[in-house]
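Budget justification aside, the reviewers requested a transparent look at the raw inputs and outputs of the sequence design task funded under Objective 1. We therefore reproduce one unedited record. The lines immediately below are the structure tokens for a 244-residue chain.
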């Protein structure tokens, strides 16, 4: 996420020059990118950031999950509305975001879950999401008991949010130097989870990292960041492997 003075680093200067391994499909009223391994009944929904379902960075994450044995689907949770572009006027970002509520995606989630079960033979389901998608993961993990594991990567938290009523194990990934998610909000999340959460969870802060670090372009990585980026990706997959 971002404000007008500091554009979001999810994308700027960090875009993969990457052609996906999967294919685009129509899932009821939305489009989706799907990448499938040879044979599996495990699937992961990949939820994009503000730059939308076609961002190469996010498709790279979906392909990585497929390479680890999951059907990976990255649907257009904006349902045809334009994604944010780095060239857009950041002063209008809040108004743009109001029409794309990460907690009002049940219609899209229902369609995707039906597709995975009926068209892909998926029986075990998980979800991961980045930035805007991280907020969406919080919501889905409190709403859909069939999602057996969730990984929320740098999803913004508001003090008022009730996100401790998780239905299944959820892993929260944060960056120590995230300009958009103050560490006190992460601490508050941990306190709420410790007090109220009835399922397994983990909250992890990665030293020295900034917003968007896990799905960032590899060629532009500072050498000191590379181990944490690789660790974040490995942690995400390990969490899914454990619970899905």
């Amino acid at each position: 996420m971002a404000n007008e003075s500091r554009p979001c680093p999810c994308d700027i200067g960090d875009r993969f020059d990457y052609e996906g391994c999967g294919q685009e499909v129509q899932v009821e009223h939305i489009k989706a990118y799907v990448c499938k391994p040879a044979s599996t009944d495990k699937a992961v929904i990949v939820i994009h950031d503000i730059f939308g379902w076609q961002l190469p960075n996010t498709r790279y994450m979906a392909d990585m999950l497929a390479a680890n044995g999951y059907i990976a689907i990255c649907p257009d949770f904006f349902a045809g509305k334009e994604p944010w572009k780095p060239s857009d006027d950041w002063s209008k970002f809040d108004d743009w975001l109001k029409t794309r509520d990460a907690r009002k995606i049940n219609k899209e989630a229902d369609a995707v879950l039906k597709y995975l079960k009926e068209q892909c033979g998926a029986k075990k389901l998980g979800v991961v999401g980045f930035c805007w998608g991280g907020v969406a993961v919080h919501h889905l993990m409190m709403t859909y008991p069939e999602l057996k594991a969730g990984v929320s990567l740098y999803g913004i938290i508001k003090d008022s949010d009730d996100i401790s009523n998780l239905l299944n194990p959820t892993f929260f990934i944060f960056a120590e130097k995230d300009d958009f998610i103050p560490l006190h909000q992460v601490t508050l999340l941990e306190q709420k989870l410790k007090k109220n959460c009835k399922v397994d969870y983990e909250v992890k802060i990665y030293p020295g990292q900034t917003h968007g670090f896990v799905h960032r372009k590899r060629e532009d990585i500072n050498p000191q960041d590379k181990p944490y980026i690789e660790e974040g990706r490995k942690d995400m997959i390990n969490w899914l492997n454990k619970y899905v």
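The first strand starts at residue 23 and ends at 27. The chain has one domain: 23-243. Computational costs for records of this kind are itemized in the attached budget.
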